[in-house]
Design a protein that fits this description.
360 residues, alpha/beta, DNA polymerase, domain 1, TIM Barrel, ten-stranded mixed beta sheet, two-stranded parallel sheet, 11 helices, 19% strand, binds iron/sulfur cluster
Amino acid sequence: MIDPRSNLYDLTRSELQERFVQWDLSPVHAGRLWNYLYLELADSFAAMPDLPAKVRTRLEAGTRIGTLPTALATESSDGFTRKFLLTLSDAERIETVLMRFTGRVTACISSQVGCAMGCVFCATGQMGYTRHLTPGEIVAQAVHVARILKLSALNPQLSTADGPKPDRLRNVVLMGMGEPLHNYDSVMQAVDILRDSSGLAIAGERITVSTVGVVPGILRLAAERRPSHLAVSLHAATQAERAALIPVARKWPLDELLAACRSYSEQTGRKIFYEWTLIEGKNDTPEHARAVGELLRGLPAQVNLIPLNPTAGYAGAPTRSEAAKRFQQILASEFSLPSTVRQRRGIDIAAGCGQLATVG
Ligand code: SF4
């Protein structure tokens, strides 16, 4: 059963202030509470000594700090990736990943328990869909990673990866479990909370929302001029090949998806990151590279190539690095299309793209 006390991480700063007014409490204390939640990263009311006893009693009676307990934490052998299995208040579980790159840390956070989109190569898709996450459950994952970083900075021995140890979370990708645009309202509320300049203060351009191609969500993002980046999972350049990998592509066919992407870029002036999982022999030949080049011709785009990560439910193999390089060269030389090959991180702890799952 979900805890009936309201989760403070669900609220924007102004909503928190409104609640304080409704409770007949001074909004000044709402500001202090906000600082405790997002600057001090406090996880209990007891750790908020500046709040008067009357305020703490009121908060304890009807609200909670929706910290997500860690059921399991694993670290990759190179020390660059940590994966957390986190428990929600109804005992459902999700995974969140902390990835260290040189000079920066990225939190990869989930938007749903499971996923309804059913991409054949994805462990989350293989689990099926259970429920949407609330805004607070999405925010709590970023807070969890921010706390780990704070702790690592205070005690460098907790961190084993080489290189500088950033002590603040500055990058968030909504690429964990779930399809973010299937849970649009909660995800956008969470993004607003993450961006608040007097809280976690994660800049809009350092937040990436991914989608497998939920066309109404893309159009809404454009109409609302949302400040985050958009990543669209493409994986194939024909409708038939795409629908074989992403069942939901039958609902939003490739031509509709590209029209929505074009409209998004026109309205926002932003390029889109197109994700392409490279599967050996399936979508990684020079012909495939030329097909994606043609498809994206004239669109502000960057292609992110992601060699397939293994999952129990899909037999495909990752593209070898020479073939990935050849794919990249064709995009660059024949189409002037920028691309990157995703650094493979956390594969040994199943924390890579498409590997997150809480069963099996
Ligand atoms: S790749 Fe993303 S959208 Fe597809 S099943 Fe996995 S989590 Fe869902």
